[in-house]
């Protein structure tokens, strides 16, 4: 029997949250393990597949999976979390509240986990999500689903292809346009930020869509206007990196022509202690200038040659001086929004290595830039960093790019 009383659902979810908080409180200091509420949720959902309240409450409960531990994500998958969410979506495909709850609830199990993301995509959850998303782009509860959607894309080209087929990438970009000088808001921070979470993975394999939907122009405007807002520039640069990596060289050239160099430097200037933002700005500068290559990853092997024109544009924008300030003048970095990731943040956002790589590209065949770096005593800094990081995860990349100097 279906239930659709929103008050009834609210009471149930409040009780669930209270129980969830109690379990978390009791487990402080203990070795991380799968929250027992997740197992209970799956059992209840399987026992009452046609009860909307049970299914909705269950999808809220499975959100208790700790995404910062891959083994816990895998325990959740083995317990049937993904199948339970998929079955709920299949039984109530037109219920906006349930699809929203299941999409959010399953995201912790999928984040940066290829096996789980692939299974969720094959079971059709993403199809249900985009059907509701596209039909309710004026609903704030739906327009903040971007982060959860992005969890489907991490390491899963197959789910990026699903989004492509369903028009999902266009929807997400439109959501930003709607909420940034758009029809629903001049600036609605959370819908924009969450949409950028989705595009940071979703533009990979869909670079042509992001290009054709004018995301490069949107990206530069976002960075220049909202570069001080946490995660806006960082996630924007994840998407522009994908666009620039495209085999069609005109994509990188287009970004150069519309002022991307200025946006990169601006992002480094306005949030000097944001490690993710500094790292992605340097990472983007390296590929913007070239050379750059990747062996694996989305789209397989890709490479970019040194582009003297973009090197000049980046230099004129002040990239050399600013990156030197980031490396040599920085007094400390803070990471924002990385605590739920199932990998170590300093190695994943190795800003010193990525900034050295950017400087190496800026110095290539450019005596003026080399002299600026020598005058700043960059070789001494590099030598000290090699010693300081020896034996850590950050060391190999620092040695690789630092050896240039």
Question: How would you portray this structure in words?
Answer:
The protein is mainly alpha-helical and 405 residues long. The chain has a domain at 261-337 and 345-405. It is 69% helix and 1% strand. A two-stranded antiparallel ribbon has the order 1-2. A hairpin with a 7-residue loop joins β1 (292-294) and β2. The longest helix has 21 residues, at 6-26. The protein starts with 5 loop residues before the first helix and ends with a helix. Residues 1-16 and 22-29 have low confidence and may be disordered.
The total strand number stands at 2
Share of β-strand residues: under 5%
The computed structural class is mainly alpha
Shape field: globular
Short synopsis of the structure:
The chain is mainly α and 405 residues long. The chain has a domain at 261-337 and 345-405. It has helices at residues 6-26, 36-47, 52-61, 70-78, 81-91, 96-110, 114-122, 125-135, 140-143, 146-153, 157-166, 168-179, 189-202, 207-212, 215-226, 232-245, 250-257, 260-270, 275-289, 308-317, 319-329, 345-348, 351-363, 367-375, 378-389, 395-402, and strands at residues 292-294, 302-304.
Keywords:
mainly alpha, disordered N terminus, two-stranded antiparallel sheet, 405 residues
Topology, pairings included?
Blueprint (H helix, E strand, L loop, with lengths): L5 H21 L9 H12 L4 H10 L8 H9 L2 H11 L4 H15 L3 H9 L2 H11 L4 H4 L2 H8 L3 H10 L1 H12 L9 H14 L4 H6 L2 H12 L5 H14 L4 H8 L2 H11 L4 H15 L2 E3 L7 E3 L3 H10 L1 H11 L15 H4 L2 H13 L3 H9 L2 H12 L5 H8 L3
Antiparallel strand pairs: 1-2
